[in-house]
Design brief:
This protein is an all-alpha fold and about 130 residues long. The protein has five helices and no strands.
């Protein structure tokens, strides 16, 4: 069995990770406003699921305070969030023009027409895709 100090640190780390995940989900929900309503709804569901997990684990000071039901529900919520995020990534990959996704990270793809040669020497050391 873990010592109380290890258990408390583990729970604090878990709560910190959930806080970071919630912040990322909030950014995702804001960014999803540019997409169709189905994508916005999915982002909202992910955010809501993370909020639910946070609420379930927020007051716990030890693993004994967490019921098996709470842990199972949290595990299911994380799995649903993961599947939803995978669906969002698939949607974005299939329905979003490449220049919109790539943006400033690959200006050679965005700023120059295909029929104009691009001097790639200035991009030496950059990571390329494909």
């Amino acid at each position: 069995l873990p010592t109380p100090q290890v258990e408390a640190r583990t729970l604090a780390m878990l709560q910190g990770l959930l806080h970071q995940l919630h912040a990322a989900c909030s950014h995702l929900a804001v960014g999803a406003r540019a997409f169709p309503s189905s994508v916005q709804e999915t982002a909202g569901h992910v955010q809501h699921g993370v909020e639910g997990i946070q609420a379930s684990l927020a007051s716990a000071r030890s693993f004994q305070e967490l019921s098996g039901l709470v842990l199972a529900q949290s595990r299911e919520a994380v799995m649903r969030a993961q599947l939803s995020l995978e669906g969002l990534l698939e949607h974005v990959g299939q329905h979003t023009p490449l220049p919109w996704l790539v943006g400033p990270f690959a200006p050679a793809l965005v700023e120059y027409p295909e029929d104009v040669p691009v001097d790639m020497s200035k991009w030496e050391g950059c990571v390329t895709v494909g």
